[in-house]
């Protein structure tokens, strides 16, 4: 299987790396972390003006049609420098609207996202054991519309998002619903996260909503699958960036008259990190390839869950080892590598973490039914 990117994806990678590296300086990161939204709005605008947000959208919606592959390339570059912009929630929502939304939903939402003027986010998680594919939040039909009731936990990047895609249970099965952020019956409670991003808990009390796709159809599975791959891509970049910090640090620091990088125990630690990162890359791109035609939903889900497991386990192991080899400076909260540790920790627990992913994978492999 050929996992080379090709010219278009390499162009996205190179442009994204240039913009993100120039913007994600320690000073800019601190500035964004102290802002009300926790988002680098200038960077978001620059990514939009460079066409990188539109690149993932279908050509019919004004994009370049690079889809999930283009998004994963962009997210890996974001993770490498831990740039505070809400790419994964906004663009996984956009891909879901592009795939399942009505013509009216696509024309209302996607152009604003492409030019950076509007944002979407996703509400997938809940308190308790409810998994993203078996939500406790309910959607009931009210005439020609729908009403949502329930609580969604840790909704990422709510600041600046005019709409949110919410997963909810219906009599026909789980569905995806579009809710205006200021809709009647929608209440927000802001919450801090490990990675310094701002999130929010969303309480829905009969909030009006529009279905995205057919309730009980494939939209919910697609959105969750996109989210798994997006988080795995960010984590691969986070781990790669952390390893780069470790290599630079160990080349420069000396002990007993020798660079720390020449000590075998340290080399073994970084070798383990390298192996984990390569496994994360391979499983990620295998899962992206599984989205191609002819499409097999079960095979795509299995591949996405394997990629998610490697991102959670391998990514967390990598940022732990990197922080360890930095010694005392690794726990300095203002030192660059500490942000990689916080991002790696946050991503490793999103959507239930490695354990929940393994449980789901086991259900798929045994032919069972996902109930959480």
TrEMBL record:
Keywords: FAD, Flavoprotein, Oxidoreductase. The keyword NADP does not apply. CDD domains: ACAD. The keyword Cytoplasm does not apply. InterPro entries: Acyl-CoA_Oxase/DH_mid-dom_sf (IPR046373), AcylCo_DH-like_C (IPR036250), AcylCo_DH/oxidase_C (IPR009075), AcylCoA_DH/ox_N (IPR013786), AcylCoA_DH/ox_N_sf (IPR037069), AcylCoA_DH/oxidase_NM_dom_sf (IPR009100). SUPFAM superfamilies: Acyl-CoA dehydrogenase C-terminal domain-like, Acyl-CoA dehydrogenase NM domain-like. It comes from the Bacteria. Pfam families: Acyl-CoA_dh_1, Acyl-CoA_dh_N. Gene3D superfamilies: Acyl-CoA dehydrogenase/oxidase, N-terminal domain (1.10.540.10), Butyryl-CoA Dehydrogenase, subunit A, domain 2 (2.40.110.10), Butyryl-CoA Dehydrogenase, subunit A, domain 3 (1.20.140.10). Belongs to the acyl-CoA dehydrogenase family. This is Acyl-CoA dehydrogenase. It comes from Streptomyces castrisilvae. The lineage of its organism: Bacteria, Bacillati, Actinomycetota, Actinomycetes, Kitasatosporales.
């Amino acid at each position: 299987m050929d996992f080379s990117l090709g010219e278009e994806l390499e162009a996205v990678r190179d442009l994204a790396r240039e913009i993100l590296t120039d913007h994600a300086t320690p000073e800019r990161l601190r500035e964004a972390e102290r802002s009300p939204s926790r988002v680098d709005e200038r960077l978001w605008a620059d990514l939009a003006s460079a066409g990188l947000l539109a690149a993932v959208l279908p050509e019919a919606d004004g994009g370049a049609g690079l889809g999930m592959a283009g998004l994963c390339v962009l997210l890996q570059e974001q993770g490498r420098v831990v740039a505070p912009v809400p790419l994964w929630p906004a663009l996984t929502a956009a891909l879901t609207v592009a795939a399942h939304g009505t013509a009216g939903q696509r024309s209302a939402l996607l152009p604003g996202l492409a030019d950076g003027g509007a944002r979407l986010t996703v509400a997938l998680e809940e308190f308790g054991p409810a998994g993203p594919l078996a939500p406790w939040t309910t959607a009931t039909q009210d005439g020609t519309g729908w009403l949502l009731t329930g609580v969604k936990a840790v909704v990422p990047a709510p600041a600046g998002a005019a709409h949110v895609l919410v997963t909810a249970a219906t009599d026909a099965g789980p569905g995806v619903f579009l809710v205006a952020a200021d809709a009647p019956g929608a209440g927000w409670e802001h919450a801090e996260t490990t990675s310094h991003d701002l999130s929010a808990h969303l309480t829905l009390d009969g909030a009006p909503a529009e279905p995205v796709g057919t309730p009980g159809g494939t939209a919910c599975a697609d959105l969750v699958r996109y989210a798994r791959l997006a988080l795995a891509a960010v984590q691969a970049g986070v781990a790669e960036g952390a390893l780069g910090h470790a290599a630079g640090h160990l080349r420069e620091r000396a002990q007993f008259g020798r660079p720390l990088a020449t000590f075998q125990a340290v080399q073994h630690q970084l070798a383990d990190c390298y192996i984990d990162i390569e496994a994360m890359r391979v499983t990620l791109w295998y899962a992206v390839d599984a989205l191609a035609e002819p499409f097999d939903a079960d095979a795509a889900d299995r591949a996405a869950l394997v990629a998610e497991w490697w991102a959670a386990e391998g990514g967390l192991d990598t940022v732990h080892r990197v922080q360890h080899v930095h010694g005392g400076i690794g726990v300095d909260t203002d030192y660059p590598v500490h942000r990689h540790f916080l991002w790696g920790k946050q991503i490793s627990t999103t959507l239930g973490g490695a354990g929940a992913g393994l449980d789901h994978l086991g259900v798929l492999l045994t032919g069972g039914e996902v109930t959480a």
